[in-house]
Amino acid sequence: QVQLVESGGGLVQAGDSLRLACTASGHTFSIYHLGWFRQAPGKERDFVSALMWNGDSTYYADSVKGRFTISRDNAKNTVYLQMNSLKPEDTAVYYCAARQYGVNTYAYWGQGTQVTVSA
After folding, report:
1. Rg of the chain over all Cα atoms, to the nearest angstrom
2. What share of the chain is helix, strand, coil (3-state, %, to 5)?
3. What is the largest CA-CA distance in the chain?
4. Which of 16, 20, 43, 57 has CA 20 to 30 A from 66's CA?
């Protein structure tokens, strides 16, 4: 079992920055990828970014490339999503999720944190 807790959401203006954090606990040794997803009102949950828990690979949705940066602090079991140049269309609930080795889906999810970007 893996537990995930997000933090760092809030209300900002367009052009501002925010940093989200996701702290993992439990069987963190089993994590292969840790990702960020977001869900805007009335829309499906979309992939934002992910990284390998024990590697260097990172992945980004086209909509956030060049503006968002994912990173990790293994000592703190924490993954960060630095979001710069925020746009109103980035408004959503942001979820952290973990995918384990040998599993093809993100099976563990955090509770989500609201990000609201005003124009």
Report:
1. 13
2. 10, 60, 35
3. 42
4. 43
